[in-house]
Amino acid sequence: MEVVGEAVDGAEAVEKARWLGVDVVVLDLWMPRMDGVAAIRRIAESVNPAPAVVALTTFDVDEYLFGALQAGAAGFVLKDSEPALLVEAVRAASKGQGLIDPQVTRRAIRRFAQIASRPAPIGLNLLTPRELEVLRHVARGLSNAEIARALTVGEGTVKTHVARVLAKLGLRTRVHLVIYAYEHAILSTS
Question: Response regulatory domain: which residues (predicted)?
């Protein structure tokens, strides 16, 4: 792991993400000129290939968490967490996985569970029964290896299913799959 750049504000972070070709960006949500949520969105839309973004903040506020995740963040870490958690979040993001700080996870899950389920969008109807099963396992927090064991398939097969589910639903990360599953009450239909 190597730090290859620093930015003083959100606009500079977007520009550096464009020309440095980084794999992961750790982005403070509270920045001048362009806040972190706007910068995450801009990075996701304008940097190709888009790096994974880990949101970092002092404020344990639901709106920051949900805003960052909706904008495309792959992880969310509070600044008062142990430094090892930030390292773990960066490593997870570099592998295409997501990590939400355990200090906010339980509250986030409760909030998503309270959201009234909406009719499933057409994309959900495009999933095969196996892809839907994989989506449910991802939403429960299982790793690819754990899903492979549960379904008695290879880990590569699980990765393929996860990639197809992401593509069919128009989502970018496993964190977004979890959000999607809770928003649409997919776990309750198993």
Answer: 1-94
